[in-house]
Amino acid sequence: IMKKFFTLIAAVAMAASVNAQTVYSFAGCTQESFTYEDSWYKYDATNKQFDYLTGSKSEYAALSLKDSPLSLLYKNSGAKTKVFTISDKYLCAQAKGTQISVSGLTDGQEVAFSVASKGSKASAFVIVSGGSVESMPTFEAKPTDADPTFQTIKVKATDKTIVLKETAGGFDIESVTITGTGTSGISNINASE
Question: What's the pTM?
């Protein structure tokens, strides 16, 4: 009986680790919620926005959510104000071409991006590297003064880092959810559940 009991406990523990889910939310973020290079970004506390200081045609500047595997990547040939704006419930990436990077993954993990169009142009996304699309909704433009309509993009990891790029005109991001431990069984030790 004890052998069957321990086998059952081990099976339940393995099933729980395979279906483990970690959610990284942008709700309630402040300037202190992010890490970034001062040479790339300056925070404007009055407008709750990050301004891009130095242009680079080849190098992406990362704005990373602390204690997470998430970074927002941006590059532009010149300085630009209001690249990222903090809202109470989400972060707004104002510019076309902004990328979302999720690192520390194992092959087979599912990453779900809760995103929405930020304005008059409907958002569009492509996988740059590290994953295959499981579901990609069609986004519609956000009506003036309306709340964002968040939809979920699901990507299965095929590498250690997934990079998702917005190609139409910016987006709002509410959260990123990582499910499972993939094929290696190693989970992200920096994740807060």
Answer: 0.84
